[in-house]
Amino acid sequence: MSHSDSTPFLRIEGVHKFYGADHILRGIDLSVKRGEVVCILGRSGSGKSTLLRTVNALESITAGRVLLDAALIGYLEKDGCLYHLPADKLAQQRARIGMVFQHFNLFPHMTVLENITMAPQIVLKQKRTDAETEALELLRKVGLADKAHAYPASLSGGQQQRVAIARTLAMRPELILFDEPTSALDPELVGEVLGVMRQLASEGMTMLIVTHELRFARDVSHTVVLMHEGRIAESGPTSKVMTTPETPAAKTFFATLA
């Protein structure tokens, strides 16, 4: 697999995160190119989801910085100090970064179509008719064209997650973060969500994915990052890291799951 641009689109530089006395992220450095698919692997508690949430400033950072297209995410730098961005500026940044969560977070009182079209109308200032036209096309893309007027409670978990992906795509993001997008699904429903993600990867969407689906990571990602105790234990081309890991932590992780 190849990706188009050699210049890092996303840069995570020296990121630390404390929760009280707990040192959750311990100096994370990571670069992602446009069109690259990066899978973050690791045991529960290794810091994977926290790292992902720092990328769109859902989590504040204790030290370091995150840059998207060379712009600081979540902060404004002035006289060598970092200040939290005002809410409106942060919302503009987040519009470029989609996020799909483990739980689908659909509004239960809204139809599928309303769930998808609300944010584009509010944030992107789309006309309702334009937003609905685009939403219907996205529902076709994720295989749910017939569910536009259904309510979330009538859908399976896999269908709800595909709606969540369509809702994310409606914001026209340049980067999508996936936080364990299949872990809340019954095993028989996992494949339909991974299928949509495979399609997005083939279309060149830049994606940063926390997942425990090793076969998916092997097939789809350009780069694998293995986290261990708040650090990146090993990262590199997927085929190399997953077949011939070099660090003890990576060797143990992949041997245990083999």
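^ that was protein a. below is b, sequence first then the tokens
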Amino acid sequence: MKIRQLAAAILILLCLTSAADAWAQDRILVFSKTQGFRHASIANGVAMLQTIASTEGWTVEASEDAALFNAADLARFRSVVWLSTTGNVLNDTQQMAFQNWLEAGGGYVGIHAAADCEYDWPWYGASVMGNGAWFLSHPAIQSANVIRESASDISTAHLPPSFQFTDEWYNFRANPRPGAQVLLRLDESSYNPGAGAMGADHPISWKRTAGMGRVWYSALGHRNETYADMRFVQHVRGGLRWAMRREDAVFSNGFEVVLPRS
């Protein structure tokens, strides 16, 4: 019994040490496993995230290995990006490890088809996507008018109040707004939303909390070209900063102050 207790104590110590190191090093896991449709833009997304990380002094580990979703490995990362994941990408044990990690204070960033996975996992729909806002359908790729709801959020402050953007526009099974802060929404009168149209209130990017963790999601990101569009790059950069608790306060004198971790 003493041997088992000692082994458990050592494992906990290693996880805590690894977690502290992850906070210091700002490691990000970019997870892009697909069990359904696979987006050709995943490679572009990985490259964009690596570029963002290099300019921010962060470290990126890109993988499609779901076995990384265990307590010890997740403790190495400050944030996990689900990059156009589709289908059931985690088993029950991996799901629980991810849930525990996120609710204990991890940071999640979901891009595009991260809403098109784990339909059989109620917690993912409720706590990650928010209010069961899984993917429902999409019309043909087209330009639409995007409305910025938050002028002060770190992931949207660089955007104008409204702007034209071309993408594959998702309709969702539910509106996440009751449990999330909507960052961007679509003006459905500016394009053809097709079957599943959401009407006057069509969120397309939002953020929320899950326990002590932070969740940020944007449905933009279907096309290869999107990952070179600086509007989107800055959008994701801001989402990562927020999810990782790396928001910066920029004052009128031009000096940038890094806020303490919360």
